Amino acid sequence: MIRKAAAALLLFASLTFAQVTALRVGHLVNPENGTVADNQIILIENGKFSAIGANVSIPAGANTVDLSAYYVSPGLVDAHNHLALTYKEEPEHNSYYLTSVLDSTAIRAIQAVSNGMTMMNAGFTVVRDLGNNGNYADTALRVAIEQGWVPGPTLINSGIIIGGFGGQFSPVPEREFLIEPEYLNADTHDEIIKAVRKNILYGAKVIKICVDCKPYGYTAEEMKLFITEAAKAGLKVAGHVQTKAGALRAIEAGIWSIEHSSALDEETHKLMAQKGIWRVGTETPLTVYHTGTTPAAKARFDRQTEGIKSAYANHVMMAFSTDADYYIPGMDRGQVVIDFLKSWQAAAIPAPELLKIMTINGYKVSDIYDKRGPIKTGLPADLIAVRKNPLQDIDTLRDVRFVMKDGIFFKKDGVMVPGPFFHSGPVPPSAWRIH
Questions:
Q1: Do 300 and 287 meet the contact criterion of CB atoms below 8 Å apart?
Q2: How far is CA 85 from CA 154, 182, 212, 247, in A?
Q3: What is the band of 102 on the pLDDT scale with cuts at 50, 70, 90?
Q4: Are residues 207 and 240 in the same domain?
Q5: What is the reported pTM?
Q6: Cβ of 51: how many Cβ atoms within 10 Å?
Q7: Which domain holds residue 278?
Q8: Burial, 25: exposed, middle or buried (Cβ in 10 Å; 0-12, 13-18, 19+)?
Q9: Residues 101 and 56 occupy one common structural domain
Q10: CATH of the domain at 43
Q11: Least reliable range by pLDDT among 29-38, 158-167, 397-406, 418-427
Q12: Mean per-residue pLDDT for 54-80?
């Protein structure tokens, strides 16, 4: 009986996945060149775009969806998030530190599933998840999504953040053990190599390091070791940076991306542009619920805004990124993230450029541009639909009405589609490994 039920589920999944889906698209947005093509037909087969154009014929029996009233765009990217970390912002204590102590990896993985679904609901089909996930809850989420157990964005996860002794924590000597598994201590060349290899073994798709979280931060030569070791597995290195000195060392080393922007200025921006280093700035919007509106918060926000303007003027490669790892009452993670539009709008970044930053640049910094993201034949069928032209009104992204990932409907007419969202039936052996 069980075998028959499993076989029926597998047959249903195979037939569903093999069926051609046709989308009648009113306006197809290309963020890469800032153009819109009207009255397009998109065909999807086996989860990938198979044909795109105005004169494409819809085959008989295709599952046809009418998006003629919408603007269709590639899915959005948050290039710096922490899906398995959700803490309350409470000034009287470091609640992030307490979260790492009080919440198990298991519960954080479950929170990550929920956060990932709300990100998809907001139109984010790719998330670069950069650590602070307990003992590899990020890998667990990525594998669960890839195997089809839960819906969620494509995850580019880092595993455990690697840093000089202590990472970002400062525990008392009696409880030194609290540093791990939130951070991997790596202070010597051998420890650096071992930490990179450990993360790769346990499923990381990018390596995240603390460049200067402690006074004994990494040298340029040590960062070059991270870069060459990660490159053996085809991975890039992202660097958490807090000081200008750390930023200059990371730039000298040729790091892939600098995470956070408080230490960046005109000089570092010019150097980053020259060397092609990504700026993943995580500028938090000035609101009552994000930062508060005190004079100090306003001053910090103004510095952030000037930083975005400087980077844009110096042609630095930038990605939309949030560092959203906290809970705001009445908002889910997707709503918290999309509100970061305010920071870019305050810096007067034009809507076409911002849409490109949120899509094309996101795929590039995630190192998946030729594998997933753009709406091109042969690539996985990921896209979103909104009511207005985002090249003219970027705030339309606050109300994503339709979401598709891998050719599967996640959201239609503004409502999440009832499950099963992804494949049903047995998982193929090729997906069993943590890869």
A1: no
A2: 18, 11, 22, 26
A3: confident
A4: yes
A5: 0.92
A6: 17
A7: 76-365
A8: buried
A9: no
A10: 2.30.40.10
A11: 418-427
A12: 97
Which residues in 275-434 belong to E strands, given as ranges?
278-280, 326-327, 383-386, 402-405, 408-412, 415-416
Sequence-distant (≥ 6) Cβ neighbours of residue 72 within 8 angstroms: 23, 25, 26, 27, 28, 29, 40, 42, 375, 383, 384, 385, 402
Q: How many independent structural domains does the chain possess?
A: 2
**If you search the block for the tokens 């918290």, which residue do you land on?**
336
- Confidence at residue 90, expressed as pLDDT on a 0 to 100 scale: 55
Instruction: Give domain status of residue 426, yes or no.
Output: no
Whether residues 211 and 354 share a domain: the answer is yes
Rounded to whole angstroms, the Cα distance separating 308 from 134 reads 31
Model confidence at 429: pLDDT above 70: no
How far apart, in whole angstroms, are the C-alpha atoms of residue 176 and residue 416? 44
Which residue's entry shows tokens 């020259």? 274
**For the segment 182-224, what is each residue's pLDDT rounded down to a tens digit?**
999 999 999 999 999 999 999 999 999 999 999 999 999 999 9
317 is written with which tokens?
């490669």
Give the angle subtended at the CA of 76 by the CAs of 331 and 96, to the nearest 5°: 45
- Domain of residue 302, CATH code: 3.20.20.140
Final residue of a domain: which of 321, 348, 365? 365
Cα 158 to the chain's mean position, in Å?
Answer: 11
Residues 6+ apart with CB under 8 A from 110: none
